[in-house]
Amino acid sequence: MTSFLVRRVLGAIVILILISLITFYLFYALPRDPARAFCGKICPPATLELVRHNLGMDKPLFVQYWLWLSAIFVGRDFTQFGPCPAPCLGYSFATQEPVFDAIVDRFPVTLSLTIGASVVILSFGILTGMLAAWKVGQPLDKIASSSSVIGASLQIYFVGPLVVFFVVDTLGLLPRPSYVQFTEDPLTWFVHLLIPWLVLSIIFTANYTRMTRSQMLEQLAEDYVRTARAKGMSGRSVFFRFAWRGAMIPIITIFGVDLATLLGGAIITEQTFTLHGIGELAVQAVQNTDLPMLLGVTVIGAAAIVFLNIVVDVLYAFIDPRVRLN
Amino acid sequence: MRSHRRRIATATAVLAVGALALAGCAKGGGGGAPSGAASKPPLENKAVSAITVGTAADSTGPAPEVAGAKPGGTANMIDRDDFSHLDPGRVYLNYNAMVSALFTRQLTNYKEDASGSIKLVGDLATDTGTTTDGGKTWKFTLKDGVKWQDGSAITSGDIKYSFERLFADFITEGPIYAQSWLVPDASKPYRDQYKGPYDGKELDTIETPDDKTVVFHLNAPHPDFNFTVAMTGYGAVPKAKDTKQKYDKQPFSSGPYQIVSHVTGKSLDLERNPNWDKTTDPIRHAYPDKFHMEFGLQSQQSTERFLADTGSDKQAFTFHNPVAPERVQEVLNNPEAMKRSLQGLTPFTTFYNINTKRVTDVNVRKAIITAWPSKQLQQLQGGETAIGKIATTVMSPTVLGYEASDLYGKLAKPDGDPEAAKKLLAQSSTPNPTIVYAYNQTPVQEKVTIAIKDALSKAGINVVAKPLNSATFYDAIGPVDNEYDVYWGGWAADWPTGSTAIQPLFDGRLIGDNQSNYSHLNVPEINTAIDQANTITDPTEAGKAWAAIDRKIMEQAAIVPEFYQTYFGLYGSGLGGVRFDPIQGEQSALDIWVK
Amino acid sequence: MTFPSSTTAETGADAVDTVAAAAGSSAAAIVGRSPGQLMWRRFRRDRTGMISAAVVIAFLLIALLAPVISWAYGKDPSTTYGLNEPGLLNEYGYPILPNGGISGDFWFGLEPGLGRDVLTQLVYGIRTSITIALIVTVLSTVIGVTLGITSGYVGGKIDYAIGRVIDTLLAFPSQLFLIVLVPVVDAALVLPDQESPTWLRFVSICIVLTVLGWATTARLLRAQVLSLREREFIEAARVTGASPARVIFKELMPNLWTPIIIQATLALPLYVGAEAGLGFLGVGMPQTTPDWGRMFQVGSTVYHSDVTYLLFPGVSMLIFVIAFNLLGDSIRDAFDPKTKR
Amino acid sequence: MTTVSWSSEPGTSRGPGPFLSVRDLSVRFSTEDGVVRAVDGLSFDVEKGTTLGIVGESGSGKSVTNLTVLGLHDPAHTEIDGEIWLEDQELVGASGSTLEKLRGNRVAMIFQDPLTSLSPFHTIGRQIGEVYRRHRGANRKEARERAIEMLERVGIPQPATRVDHYPHEFSGGMRQRAMIAMALVCDPDLLIADEPTTALDVTVQAQILDLLKDLQQQFGTTIILITHDLGVVASTADNVLVMYAGRAAEQGTVREVLSKPRHPYTWGLLSSMPRLTSSVDVPLVPVRGTPPSLLSPPAGCAFHPRCDFSQLVGSDLCFTQRPDISPESGHGDACYLTLQQKRDIRTGDTKEQA
């Protein structure tokens, strides 16, 4: 087991380095001179040169990348911003704040969006999927299937504003979606995030209902389920003790990917509800061509995806003994 | 078995029809009949009536009391971004300058009286400074009793140090006027001649005969140097408390408030500075006990919260956030909100540079101005209240000496006059020219481009629109030999006199890559007029000279003026004394009190 | 609890095979049918599939006949009616008539701001979405299939290399990278002097969506090929000395058409959504090209005062994507009856 | 309902009537392409303690019949007529819960492919113990001991450690032994083995069949052995039932049916099987054609399209009338050829091939 983890973590690190390298060089494909932002309205060429030197932009590309990478472990001192302690992803060109602090500061928003949505997705999605499989062909199954097809076809940027318009503006049932520190006031935190959770879960849950249903039905057609029936196991225990385990594997895989995308900052959701999560940070980084922030957000997003892939593989071994972590 | 999906198709149809019906009964998605805006009183974006230089008497504190104001309470500020810089030497943005006014004081500053006229008065200095040789040497004497937040006195040494540190290598974002004037050789870059105080060297062009007096020896006469030192960029920094780069996040206060906490990107909290002496300050009040500032709210959000006016938003104001353009109509129809609204003309003017090196024929340039669809552009960006009045000159009305003039009859025909433009083109070398119009690819600018293409093509001018990535816009138009003919520009004078409104943009000798003279205008007659205007000591005379230069530039048709930008903002019902600062064009915090 | 035991499938399957067998008795003329015909028979009997196919074809027709519709309707998507004719938009750019300015001559109302006709914008918008989605689906499927098969069939170092590329691509936060790549590809393809034509952004969007899209198809195909490679009939083909190309095209491909087509029909609506998402985030097609994504973007900023504008693209996109999803489901069921439950 | 005593040589028939009696059973599935008549009026009996071999090509309805005994069909798509009597209990009409109590307890079943028939997610011990706990209410510890005991009985080495292994850690033969252990854990009266040895190679096949015989001797379990391999039937079964197109074609004791077959289909089966005694160069004669479509089975005798002797019957009986098993007990067959004709053809034909 540990050898598996070590190998996978090393592989993950290689991928993260690869991604940061690609993002770094991609960024330089843009004809944008970030130094410009550090020079006043009237910017004599001499000052522009000085700023480029301060930002280390006068060094060759790979050296700049190496400085960025080593800064994560040993920290770095910028003439333009001052010292940057160990987990240093540099300073944002747009807001002059340390990138790492910005991400850590924005992470709770994305985290609460993700947790809320995943709880609803998993519980509601899988539950309806199971019920639809249990009552296959009956009215409940038909309703679940048709609503899940409709749900899966909705787009966040359509449903979001619509829900806000009706629920908040017209009916005033719920406050406008925003983020309130969970630690300060859990109730308002919950109420203010209800709409984003609701919208996000409508779309994601639909997929999980459809997937759970088809997986459960596929498992129920397996030979070993027939054997269980032949052993006198009741229909209910066959359904809940035998069939669901097989069905969980593909669902975990997909959930790993979805969770990672949410953790990486659901850009469209945060844009629709103007939530200041990592997604918005990423969009601003692109609009301001803010390399350090962009690199930081990409690496954090990729790390979430890669880390969750490892977790999913480990989970496989728990559920399916045939999977050996060699 | 698969019949269960038979009903899906019918379910979808029902849902679709339902949604459309729902929309029908919604409270009318349309804008409704024209809101009778015409019947509304015309917006009083009046220009600043007069800018004068105050006397020593005007410079003495305390500032006149605001009617009905009472101390106490906490004033909240909600806005879009955190302040990128608070170290005076790195402040150039008006947004940063507005908050710095609460804790950074300069030698001189502006005082607005009830009638709306502006006076330059001494802030830390007893008066607006004295010069005997036409502006080459300037003497300022500090007031008694001006102290830092720890109670230590502000000395002439601190003022000298504040100017010296502007030469350090980490101070690059602020203004560069004083630095380029305080070095012996004006032609060479100032950073090569002095590297800052951190290696023990001093700048000998600044003398401090005693603790109270500071004498500046400039390398050329600058009669409006007393306006220059009013910039936040030249605010005082204590020699003992200079934390270099970290000073940018938590500066040491010489004003009525001191910074208690600053969580970057999130919030800034200020409390009273016990050592600030009201009698030494003719400009600032300090009614609220605390200021709490919160960031991360786009203008749509702050507009919604001001309209809702609930809870702590009652005591909230905003420096920068205007009313969101798409909500302007809603606010204008809301009399209660209008009671807590602010309107005013900002020093910002926007215009379209015409690259005189590529569009060489003046008649073509004149035709472009004549055919320009100013009215449509104004309507596209939210009308006069949200974006600005249609401009016809280079200088903004907020600048001393502004004279209204409309050489191309834009106010008469704001929709553009294709016929007159065609006539001008007939007299030009190219009857139907092709111009390359570069624009910043934002949603608004894309709509503007469509309107411009329509209007100019009606006048026979063929427009090639070149979208530029919004991040690389300035990099693309920066080089002198860029391949674009017309591109958008915006400018604000650093102080309300003609020199910073015109010289950096139209002085032929300042043309260079990434320099501000984007229209590359190089007319000897204008260059000499600029030098001549720079030597006039009397402000009103200087104003007339700059107005004449303004007309000459418009005759050259170097730019298509767009707007004198206006500000339209809201604040909470629980605050009094929220006023519009015409110098910076944002809401001022200096007279605020909590009801 | 209803519990479909496997025997139904087995006998059912036997029955179907026997149907295929040419038992020459006097019962109903049972004629042999190829898998393709079988698939078509099953698909024809699946009414939901037929209805969704009809809706999809309707959308395709509308997209094709857009100029005809706009000619018959009398309006075109690019003229800014609101700006040119007074009395349509009020001073702040909102349509004066209620419900988004729906009226006799503007059936779906006017776009706030520029005042363009919503109906023609929608109709031409389908054209943009479908063309981009089709191109990207075809491209990413072709790339995905080729790389998936080579890495699955060839194995060894190549498989490892392609596998790592796929892992890296899938590890990119895709939404973020769509926004980053479009300006980068734009800058790379930029033409210095004349106006950058609309096709430039069209090409860069296709490139970006394909680059980030093919990895999932490749991974699916690789898994399919790995499982098929072990089967006896592949060993048999190899033993008879068939060249790898012949094995792949004659032996493997026939078995792969089902997953390929299923993956493509389910991917297409996703690409339509992604393209609209780009428009919503402001990196989609430029203003001059009608695009649903941008209609959503404008809609989401003006919905306070004009919610109707948002509904038109929203509902049409909803129906469009549902039809595609249902069509994908029906095709999958027709192709692969085992999972038809 | 007449109960006929059934005399058979080796069986120890103790009970008054047959242990398991299937009366005119027919099972129809509604599928996309029409109604499939998998079983079409089948009747047979099984004596207690004996082994009945059911033989037939795939699609002849042998598995369906036995799954009906356990009531494992999906009622939504299946119509079942006729009766199945297990001693005094009627199964077709029985309620779900009674059937559940019966399955694994009195009637057990083992399947063809042990790998897919065992749950990959649970250990062997747990899967065996589950049945014991379900029917005997044993606690976890007792169930585990019972599982170890059963594993030992079916001949699996070190049962104490193997009990905690997963199915994929067992070899083919071992897995089938585990299946048998699981089926017999509650000492069922009837064991239905659906092609237990087809997935195994020949050597393991023999071990499994011997194991089944030993267990039958030890516990007197009645076994129904479903197979398409006549060799397996010959070596293990007491009686044989040959099925074709959902009906019984021929039934009787192993010796009667295999040495003196009377139905053309049985001849076909026997002649398509290589024998040690027959010479190598004599070609095998498989039954021509393929099994009939159960969607619309041929009229009259379902075998007539493939029967070489239908014209011998003279009238077009074979093409119009469906033959029934005659005589109902003892060695019966469903064919209109007279006994004499059958004996002549058999001696004429089989002698040539013997």
How are the SSEs ordered, and which strands pair?
The complex is a heterotetramer of chains A (326), B (595), C (341) and D (354).
Chain B: H1 6-25, E1 51-53, E2 74-78, H2 94-100, E3 108-112, E4 118-122, E5 130-131, E6 137-141, H3 156-164, H4 177-181, H5 190-193, E7 206-207, E8 213-217, H6 225-228, E9 257-263, E10 267-272, E11 290-294, H7 299-308, E12 316-317, H8 328-332, H9 335-339, E13 341-354, H10 362-371, H11 374-380, H12 383-386, E14 388-390, H13 418-427, E15 434-440, H14 443-458, E16 462-468, H15 473-477, E17 486-492, H16 498-506, H17 524-534, H18 539-556, E18 559-570, E19 575-576, E20 579-581, E21 586-588, E22 593-594
Chain C: H1 6-20, H2 35-45, H3 47-64, H4 66-73, H5 81-84, H6 98-101, H7 118-154, H8 156-171, H9 174-189, H10 198-229, H11 232-239, H12 244-280, H13 292-302, H14 307-335
Chain D: E1 20-31, E2 34-46, E3 51-55, H1 62-70, E4 78-86, E5 89-90, H2 96-102, E6 107-110, H3 114-117, H4 124-136, H5 140-153, H6 159-162, H7 172-184, E7 190-194, H8 202-219, E8 222-227, H9 230-236, E9 239-244, E10 247-253, H10 254-259, H11 264-271, H12 317-320, E11 332-333, H13 339-353
Parallel strand pairs in D: 3-8, 3-9, 6-7, 7-8
Antiparallel strand pairs in D: 1-2, 1-4, 4-5, 9-10, 10-11
Question: Please, could you describe this protein's structure?
Answer:
Chain D: Residues 22-270 form the ABC transporter domain. Chain D: Belongs to the ABC transporter superfamily. The complex is a heterotetramer of chains A (326), B (595), C (341) and D (354). Chain A has 326 residues and is mainly α. Chain A is 72% helix and 2% strand. Chain A has helices spanning 2-28, 45-54, 61-74, 99-134, 139-153, 156-170, 186-220, 223-230, 235-263, 267-272, 278-287, 291-319, and strands at 76-78, 82-84. In chain A, helix 5 crosses helix 7 and helix 6 crosses helix 7. Chain A starts with a helix and ends in a 7-residue tail after the last helix. The model of chain A has no long low-confidence stretch (mean pLDDT 84). Chain B has 595 residues and is α+β, with helices and mostly antiparallel strands. Chain B has 18 helices and 22 strands. Chain B has a 6-stranded mixed beta sheet. Chain B has a 5-stranded mixed beta sheet with strand order 9-10-11-2-12, with no helix packed on it. In chain B, helix 16 packs antiparallel against helix 17 and helix 17 packs antiparallel against helix 18. The model of chain B is unreliable at 1-45 (pLDDT under 50). Chain C is mainly alpha-helical. In chain C, 72% of the residues lie in helices and 0% in strands. Chain C is built from 14 helices and no strands. In chain C, helix 11 crosses helix 12 (244-280) and helix 12 (244-280) packs parallel to helix 13 (292-302). The longest helix of chain C has 37 residues, at 118-154. The relative contact order of chain D is 0.14. Chain D is globular. Chain D has helices spanning 62-70, 96-102, 114-117, 124-136, 140-153, 159-162, 172-184, 202-219, 230-236, 254-259, 264-271, 317-320, 339-353, and strands spanning 20-31, 34-46, 51-55, 78-86, 89-90, 107-110, 190-194, 222-227, 239-244, 247-253, 332-333. Chain D has 354 residues and is an alpha/beta fold. At the A-C interface, helix 1, helix 5, helix 6, helix 7 and helix 8 of A face helix 8, helix 9, helix 12, helix 13 and helix 14 of C.
